[in-house]
Amino acid sequence: MSTLKQVAAEAEVSVSTASAALRGMDIVRPDTIRKVEAAARRVGYRVNLSARALRNGRTGIFTAIVPDLGTAFYARFANSLSNALLAHGHRLVIQTSQYDAELELDLIRRANASVCDGLFVCPTASNGDAVRQAAGDQPVILFDGEDSGDTASLDRIETPNQSGMDAVIRHLAEDCGRTRIGIVGASDRSTPAAKGTRLRLSRCDYALRTMRSLGLNVEHAPVVSDWGVEAGIATARRLVADELAYDALCCMNDELAFGVLRGLAECGIRVPEDVAVTGFDGIPGCTYVTPTLTTVAVDADGMAQAAVSMMERRVGIGGAGLTGDGTVAADAASGNGTASRGNSSRRSRAGSRTEADPRNTIASQRLIAGFRLIVRESTAGRA
Amino acid sequence: MSTLKQVAAEAEVSVSTASAALRGMDIVRPDTIRKVEAAARRVGYRVNLSARALRNGRTGIFTAIVPDLGTAFYARFANSLSNALLAHGHRLVIQTSQYDAELELDLIRRANASVCDGLFVCPTASNGDAVRQAAGDQPVILFDGEDSGDTASLDRIETPNQSGMDAVIRHLAEDCGRTRIGIVGASDRSTPAAKGTRLRLSRCDYALRTMRSLGLNVEHAPVVSDWGVEAGIATARRLVADELAYDALCCMNDELAFGVLRGLAECGIRVPEDVAVTGFDGIPGCTYVTPTLTTVAVDADGMAQAAVSMMERRVGIGGAGLTGDGTVAADAASGNGTASRGNSSRRSRAGSRTEADPRNTIASQRLIAGFRLIVRESTAGRA
DNA sequence: CTGAAAGCGCTTACAG
DNA sequence: CTGAAAGCGCTTACAG
């Protein structure tokens, strides 16, 4: 790899000029910029990000921590986030916590010490405070994080649990005329660290709330061990053995619903004739299970883009310092001017975090993602 | 974040000693090590990887380029790779090429200039040469890459296409007594850059080879547009419209098979009574589609672990230089001693890649992953 | 066994 | 508008 020094020599300018020119700073004369760019191309120059990071305190690399990539929702979300960041000239390191709260906090702590400008965290069992503390001075965007006291400087994005559940329940009650709706996804408190515990409670609560507001009978929701396919299968079998007191089963996520569909099919129960089934998330499988699954399709791309905006606001980048590696980076440079100015004035030197850091003084934002209720065979029957 | 200098001051030793102590080098007296470690803990020290990378030329960060994380096989593989690297004290940046050959090469080139010690690439349409060239001096492990001329210093890992297809075809023919087997997954050459083109050709060829060896009639395989669910649905409909000349449909991957199952169900064709269906990969959906899918379950974890071994061999790390950030790193230190020695002697200074770099002189390796044929309802019927 | 010094490649005040 | 110099935090010969 060639260095900036070589580019400068090739272009017959100083290293400082070469540096400024490649980053397109407007104090450099246009023809000097062209000269330097040509030289960079000739010697095949690529900026060394380690050096830049050491100087800058910035790397353009962010870290996402998701419980698992084997779960379709998280895989798709990580995909969206990765692409959204890439479009802004940044990169994403994806790591998995395997639903282990300790591992999760450890990953966050390590990211903090590592080459990373900020964190995107889908917490499994840790609350906002614990995440905030582990993250140290790194900005964090939290997804579906449990609410807690001191959350200044913790931005949040949530899946539309309340409005989504409301839409599904209304669909089952009003469009499909179901009256005995079972909520599949509750868990007793004895398995607090199991997959999806947090979400589980929240989504179930919202579903029950809408049912009550519609005057529906709220029976005990079937308890499940986790939100996976196996748990869904087991639940369906158990319900059938109990003479299936429901005419609709509203599942807290798609995988659980897949399992329920499987389990019901094995018992010879017809969907949706005997019982309607719904999911939540909108993962690809919904279109090819039999019957196809009515679900709340969460706008993962929108979530990802919002997350990137929040992060850029907090990191305070217009992109200027992070691009300029010879390739065009129009996108990244189009950030807001204020943030960009704030950037350079904020700290004169890497590591000097003595002055108040706006990362922690900006008010925190909160956003709820959009969704679409997609009606398919599992509630509407075959076309 | 505190620096090594502060640790040294706290421990009342020099910076060099602190550095050596934290990496557990055996030239440091044991009690000095303890003293430094205690100091590091007190000031909450974490090594700055940018600085280390600048000095070392190593970051402990690797990059994986997969076509897509929305595809279950790649998501699972990325997951496995990420975990396998983590267990060795490294980290993985996952990026997606979206089946775009240009983007793919661009990502590889960028990774080369960035904070990255090596690349894991699942190529979409680029051949080994193009990947090798884009990667520059970075080590690359290629997955299911097309064979090409100059592949020195390109290690490869392949899914067990030949033995896997052989096992499926034999299962259909010998265990299930099927004689009219259709291979779903061929494509005409007119869509060369479409999803999975490369694999498609190879797997189909192997399937047909086994069929011929068994004396089966090899008819024209149904051409599909890609390897997705939609293509599978369309194929099934087309075949049924053509009076379904097959008693088995051997699909080149699971998603295609899911689509075929869907399409057949919509047409009222029974699986496996009228026609047996098989997939390839072993993604989670196989267990919950109806009927459950017989498939070749590729050992993704094994692939990932082998990939990490190959990479470590090529990068020449025993882990010593990359760990020692205060946390215990037993795993990482247990690499092979030879590589570890080669490491320090290889280059005295970062960036001085003048001497012959073993990265490019080590003979390339090739490995074929393991698999298990898992028989389910789609060929065996319900239990 | 320990310490002082050089230098990885870059960016940014600071002088011209 | 351009250049010389300092320094980000670390590791590694090299002297003691």
From TrEMBL, chains A, B:
Keywords (A to Z) from UniProt: DNA-binding, Transcription, Transcription regulation
Where are the compositionally biased (Low complexity) regions?
331-343
Q: Which residues form the signal peptide?
A: none
Segments forming domain HTH lacI-type: 2-56
Q: Does the keyword Transcription regulation apply?
A: yes
Q: Which residues form a coiled coil?
A: none
Q: Which domain of life is it from?
A: Bacteria
Q: Where is this region: Disordered?
A: 331-361
Has the keyword Transport been applied to this entry?
no
Q: Which GO terms describe its molecular function?
A: DNA binding
PROSITE patterns, per the entry = HTH_LACI_2
Protein name, per record: LacI family DNA-binding transcriptional regulator
